[in-house]
């Protein structure tokens, strides 16, 4: 849907134009006419040559995550590509890898933020029963208990919104994803606030601080890994520092 894609691209560029920087300043820096760049920000331009995208990124001084997001918005997946992997089955070997890990928290997350698989510790840290499947974005923004559970909730909420923003740039016409985002915007003021800021940088490595009702204060060092053979899926592995109080609490929880 070019209209949706172009509107999103225009909104993203407006969000990245520093306060006080005029349209004509950006156009001049990029080497465009004022009329052409104005139409880009209004979402009225359908095709972008690579040189045009490079000029925009340079004029707005976009960092690498923002530059990549601009490219995703301008080069969304085709309908044929979406049909190939619109389902998110979990291979048996991958499920065994996730569920068989006993010393770390392991989550397998789908493109919409669905929890596709997790091990016992992963479920326990989130307050879920083994085997329970939820949407982690809904859990983050619509379950008040999650704010109490995560000490650094705001940081993780921004990351959750950023993952959805990236997914939306890849599949701007995906009705299921669009419905999820609309629902979160309506039901969560926090999500609407964060979403309006167009977050796109999702840290691969982060530190999660839990205030767990059963285990107490738990600190996890987490890495998010993309799976080349499973587009859209990510593996999130969290581990406590060996010998730390958090490591002992994890053992008790598991």
Outline the structure in words.
By secondary structure, the chain is of the alpha+beta class. It has two domains: 2-75, Orthogonal Bundle (434 Repressor (Amino-terminal Domain)), CATH 1.10.260; 92-253, Beta-Lactamase (2-Layer Sandwich), CATH 3.30.450. It is 52% helix and 13% strand. The chain contains 14 helices and five strands. The protein has helices at residues 2-16, 23-30, 34-41, 50-59, 64-74, 79-84, 92-99, 120-125, 136-142, 144-149, 153-170, 175-187, 189-196, 245-253, and strands at residues 105-109, 115-118, 205-212, 216-226, 234-239. It has a five-stranded antiparallel beta sheet. A hairpin with a 3-residue loop joins strand 3 and strand 4 (216-226). Helix 2 (23-30) crosses helix 4. The longest helix has 18 residues, at 153-170. The radius of gyration is 20 Å and the shape is elongated. The chain starts with a helix and ends with a helix. The model is unreliable at 78-86 (pLDDT under 50).
Mean pLDDT over the full residue set: 85
- Backbone CA Rg: 20 Å
CATH class wording of the largest domain: Alpha Beta
Terminal CA distance reads: 46 Å
Which range best describes the helical content: under 10%, 10-25%, 25-40%, 40-55%, 55-70% or over 70%? Answer: 40-55%
Sheet/helix structural class: alpha+beta
Q: How would you write the strand order of the largest sheet? A: 2-1-5-4-3
Oligomer: single chain
Q: What proportion strand? A: 5-15%
Number of domains: 2
Q: Which outline best applies?
A: elongated
Instruction: Look up the CATH topology of the largest domain.
Output: Beta-Lactamase
Q: Detail the poorly predicted runs.
A: 78-86
Number of strands: 5
Write the CATH architecture name of the largest domain.
Answer: 2-Layer Sandwich
